[in-house]
Amino acid sequence: MRPLTEEETSTLFQKLSKYIGENIQLLVDRPDGTYCFRLHKDRVYYVSEKILKLAVNISREKLVSLGTCFGKFTKTQKFRLHITALDYLAPYAKGFGVAAKSTQDCRKVDPMAIVVFHQADIGEYVRHEDTLI
Amino acid sequence: MEARSAEELLARAERAEAEKLRLITVHKDLELEFDLGNLLATDRNPPTGLRQRSGPGLEAQLRGLARDNVQLLINQLWQLPSERVEEAVVARLPEPSLRLPREKPLPKPRPLTRWQQFAQLKGIRPRKKTSLVWDEASKQWRRRWGYQRARDDTKEWLIEVPGGADPDEDQFAKRLQAKKERVARNELNRLRNIARAHKVQLPSQGGMHPTGYQSRAELGKAMQVAKVSTASVGRFQERLPKEKPPRGPGKKRQFQPNIGDFAAEKKSQLELIRVMNSKKPRMDVTRATNKQMREEDREEAAKKRKVAKGRGGKRKGRPLGPGGKGKGGPPGPGGKRKGRPPGLGGKKGQRQGGKRRK
């Protein structure tokens, strides 16, 4: 378990800002407690300070998960957001998907073209049961 | 008057006595259990006296409870037989009744040494030997090995030169040398056994031995180590014609501590967010202008080519390849291609295409 490096933090925030815009600072700076992001086995966890201090006592091999898993970093250091982050993103959400075409193109496109890329949906809880931690 | 004062004195004395007794006597529902050997007193009374769950009152109550228990323990200690040791009155403590648990974990069984493994395999049992041996030369009982042992061949004063040996060779020195070698070998084996017991890998044995089967990885490691084991730490070593330069060990990454300064972390993250948000419009403007400029260049290039084509008149079926090149067809290669006949150009074109693909 370790805190995120500068690059990892910026990658994470860029991804999150696509969904919640400037409200990331509400995630970072919360009035009801100190929460922080920690990296464990390539997964990013959003955890309160109290729980973090407890989790520090568990060895790396035995620690499965802590707090809320927001997503994971792939081998090429891209950040994949998981559905488990929904609870924290929903209150601040700006939209629900990444647009595949620009606004202008959306108007001229044929009926079968892809317009929005799928990022996550509620069914992932069941479909990706084995890999979601 | 005197009687009254005497009575008063007596009353006062009695009150003082009662006070003292009250101080040193403590009433407990259940008697304490004492283990004076460990200076331990166990109080099994339920703590019903503690009214408060938390707060300053609890501290006072706990302190009172501790004082009472310590008083009882001291009372018990005063009842032990005492003795004087260098002007101090000392109580002799009885044997402790509570057995304390182990401080350290049980020692692990050591792995067998090489000889022990061999003996176990062969079923060799140690034979009991006498510790003293009769030494003919000194006519006394001497030990079997060690200081002044019975048959120490380095201590002989006369050694016959053996049949086939060089007459100028120093036989005494030869025996001393042999003994030194035996001692060194013994020491080495002892250390190897210890290393095996602690599962510590000796550097000479880390997969690198001159004979025997070595895997490809081990050979590679041996080669790496050999390369670096020079005076300039492998800097001026020659390489085979197609050998790649060796990879360095690389930099070890340093991370922030896990439970560092939360406030500082928060501040840096907020700063990052602020910079990110402020950068957004700026980036877009530069990107947009670059994109615009590229589009304009492409349009101009396309226009030029069309004009040149119209003038040249030679029709080329081959598509110009700005898509393949990526950054827009610069007029250079396009010009070259125009000059050549299609056949030759075809071959050249394919080769160029191959290069592009690479």
From TrEMBL, chain A:
Domain of life: Eukaryota
Parts of the chain that traverse the membrane: none
Protein name: Nucleolar pre-rRNA processing protein NIP7
PROSITE patterns assigned to the protein according to its UniProt record, in alphabetical order: PUA (PS50890)
Pfam families assigned: pre-PUA_NIP7
60S ribosome subunit biogenesis protein NIP7 pre-PUA domain location: 1-83
Organism placement in taxonomy: Eukaryota, Metazoa, Chordata, Craniata, Vertebrata
InterPro entries: NIP7_N, Nip7_N_euk, UPF0113_PUA
TrEMBL record, chain B:
Region: Disordered, residue numbers: 232-358
Gene, per the UniProt record: LOC114054149
Stated role: Involved in ribosomal large subunit assembly.
Family from the record: Belongs to the RRS1 family.
Record GO cellular component, one term: nucleolus
Compartments in which it is found: Nucleus
Residue runs in coiled coils: 6-33
Residue spans of biased composition, Basic and acidic residues class: 236-246, 292-302
Identification of the protein by name: Ribosome biogenesis regulatory protein
One BP annotation, GO: endonucleolytic cleavage in ITS1 to separate SSU-rRNA from 5.8S rRNA and LSU-rRNA from tricistronic rRNA transcript (SSU-rRNA, 5.8S rRNA, LSU-rRNA)
Biased composition (Gly residues): 320-329
Sorted UniProt keywords: Coiled coil, Nucleus, Ribosome biogenesis
InterPro entries: Ribosom_reg
Feature: compositional bias, Basic residues: 303-318, 348-358
